[in-house]
Amino acid sequence: MKIHFIRHATFAFEMNGIRVLVDPMLGDAGTAPAVPNTPNQRPNPLVDLPFGNDGLSDLIDNTDAVLVTHTHNDHWDGRAQELIPKDTLVLCQPEDEARISSAAGFTNVSAVDPGLAWKSLRFARTGGRHGTGEIGAQMAPVSGFVIQTDGSPSLYVAGDTIWCDEVEEALHTHRPDVIVVNAGAARFLEGDPITMTAEDVARVCRAAPEARVIAVHMEAINHCLLTRAELARKLGEQGLAEGVEIPADGQTLETPA
């Protein structure tokens, strides 16, 4: 399995020759407003894509399907909706199926509810909590997804969630080989973080000590306050740094079968 990390929560993975693009946010830097009610008000995204127009065209042309964990703008933006062909298979949570079909005009949308088989890939939807209390309720619904195929490591895309019972259950039930977590400790001026903190990532490592953990969702959106360097430092203090990869924008990771 290959994982090409692009930016924020956007990455493409390849299993058995099938390439799936996850949570495409493809807009240029500064073309979207800042997330309101947050500690800084820089326009988003904070950084450009790690490739030019040719690289973007290659990404789109070589995508067999798109997986959207939820439809917040930093996971499914207007430019992605413009560039991705409307007949591309889009997989999503049930709550977003009609929105992607009707509002965005995609003609081949399938909800993973609770599972779905496509070509040689098997998808299972998992739960999550996009924060706590009232804010978490307002940010919902969100989902994670586990992808499996014969002859390849399994992949758990946790999505926009904090550490919670649903994540622990997904780890226990599916025992994934590779786990992509959305860190960044995103937050508003009030309330607790709505994506994983360093301690949340550490909990994932402890719950799945044999898995390869990949932490993304940092340094690209204005309300994500946890940096790559700070995450690495805090994991190092707990003796967990070697168990977590924190890719740079544009980096490709490969996991042997």
From TrEMBL:
The keyword Hydrolase applies. InterPro entries: RibonucZ/Hydroxyglut_hydro, UPF0173_UPF0282_UlaG_hydrolase. PANTHER family: L-ASCORBATE-6-PHOSPHATE LACTONASE ULAG-RELATED (PTHR43546:SF9), UPF0173 METAL-DEPENDENT HYDROLASE MJ1163-RELATED (PTHR43546). This is Metallo-beta-lactamase domain-containing protein. GO terms for molecular function: hydrolase activity. Keywords: Hydrolase.
